Amino acid sequence: MRRLPPLGSLRAFEAAARQGSFKRAAAELGVTPTAISHQVRQLEAGLGVSLFQRQTRQVVLSAEGRAFYPQLRQAFDMMADAVAATGRPARAVATLSATVAFTARLLVPRAAGFRRLNPGWDLRLHASDDPVDLSAGEADAAIRYGLGPYPGLDAHPVLADSFAPVCSPHLHLSGPEDLAASNLIHFEWGPAARLSVPTWRSWARAAGLAGRLDPEAGIVFSDENSAIQAAIAGQGVALLSLALVAAELASGALVQPFGPPLPGLRYDFVCRVGAEAGPAVAVLRRWLTADVIGQDLERSSVMG
């Protein structure tokens, strides 16, 4: 009978050693970094040795860890080969990360088109306003909102953004002077807030309403998608991305009663340098080109 440590602790150590990080190992295995740390300490206690040297911002394999890791990785590779040879072929999955609002407004309504264009592939959408670590394999590609550059990444422009007041047609706004009696809808910017992003204050200056409109009053939402829903529901006037509400403007669910529009930032399709020719990136790019943005990403490259 073989006497082995728990498989979970061996798996946690192997992932942490391979990734060089408890955080990246946790993302790979779908657990928390604390869980990885606990599993590794359990393994160390059972073996009676320290497998990592724990430093302030990183973990480094100890001499015992360096000796243990290659044999353990080989064992996991052999198990993976045995499973692949015995079971059904693994499904091909392409993962695209984007902001919550971009995912909800532009990607989700077109998700079914991905499999129509790419038979045999599954799509995984990762919605987060925090940039994912593409180098750690958290996603195959991402839609970043900003102006770049993105070191270590290839970037292809997707959409140039602009912002303007939009609202439900039932509010019957005729001119900027009507804003004084309307609720202004705001949302809290995520990582892009460190850049120059459109606000009601900057719009009031551009519209010549500085001092005649309180740009801070109104309703504040923690995310952009909620602000869009509030505008559709007639709760007030929102300064929104015209790219994200294009479908509602086309259907008449929202109207842009007046300007001026303000320039926003840019949505870029990004992937690791060297990964642009990979199959997962290729199928994501094909889908975005055909169904989401309708332009050739191959011809508009901005190197990060």
From TrEMBL:
<dbReference type="InterPro" id="IPR058163">
    <property type="entry name" value="LysR-type_TF_proteobact-type"/>
</dbReference>
<comment type="similarity">
    <text>Belongs to the LysR transcriptional regulatory family.</text>
</comment>
<dbReference type="InterPro" id="IPR005119">
    <property type="entry name" value="LysR_subst-bd"/>
</dbReference>
<feature type="domain" description="HTH lysR-type">
    <location>
        <begin position="5"/>
        <end position="62"/>
    </location>
</feature>
<dbReference type="InterPro" id="IPR000847">
    <property type="entry name" value="LysR_HTH_N"/>
</dbReference>
<dbReference type="GO" id="GO:0043565">
    <property type="term" value="F:sequence-specific DNA binding"/>
</dbReference>
<dbReference type="GO" id="GO:0006351">
    <property type="term" value="P:DNA-templated transcription"/>
</dbReference>
<dbReference type="InterPro" id="IPR036390">
    <property type="entry name" value="WH_DNA-bd_sf"/>
</dbReference>
<keyword id="KW-0804">Transcription</keyword>
<dbReference type="InterPro" id="IPR036388">
    <property type="entry name" value="WH-like_DNA-bd_sf"/>
</dbReference>
<dbReference type="GO" id="GO:0003700">
    <property type="term" value="F:DNA-binding transcription factor activity"/>
</dbReference>
<dbReference type="Pfam" id="PF03466">
    <property type="entry name" value="LysR_substrate"/>
</dbReference>
<dbReference type="Pfam" id="PF00126">
    <property type="entry name" value="HTH_1"/>
</dbReference>
<keyword id="KW-0238">DNA-binding</keyword>
<keyword id="KW-0805">Transcription regulation</keyword>
<protein>
    <submittedName>
        <fullName>LysR family transcriptional regulator</fullName>
    </submittedName>
</protein>
